[in-house]
Design goal:
The protein is an alpha+beta fold and 96 residues long. It has three helices and three strands, in the order H-E-H-E-E-H.
Length: 96
């Protein structure tokens, strides 16, 4: 699994950049250095709880951290296609 760490980091960057394309306030790109992507929903018109609940319903794993923030993690079993599906789901949930 250690061999996969660079791929996980690349997928996290793909996710972070895709989220920024949806709304620049969702992610701080410069703080995405590992396979963990922190999302901030305070200025997008939806609560993190609502977004998390809808993503969980669609089979995506996402963790609520505080009322307006959550995180997503790329790891073994997650592909670029999975990241793209998550981005599409988030775009639809946010109505963008």
């Amino acid at each position: 699994m250690v061999d996969r760490i660079p791929e996980d980091h690349q997928l996290a960057q793909r996710l972070a950049h895709g989220l920024t394309a949806i709304d620049p306030t969702l992610v701080e790109i410069d703080k995405t250095e590992t396979n963990i992507v922190h999302l901030h929903f305070s200025s997008v018109g939806k609560s993190a709880t609502e977004v998390v609940d809808r993503l969980l319903e669609q089979g995506f794993k996402i963790k609520l951290i505080v009322p307006d923030d959550c995180r997503m993690i790329t790891h073994y079993g997650i592909t670029a296609a999975d990241v793209d599906e998550a981005l599409l789901a988030i775009r639809e949930i946010l109505g963008r």
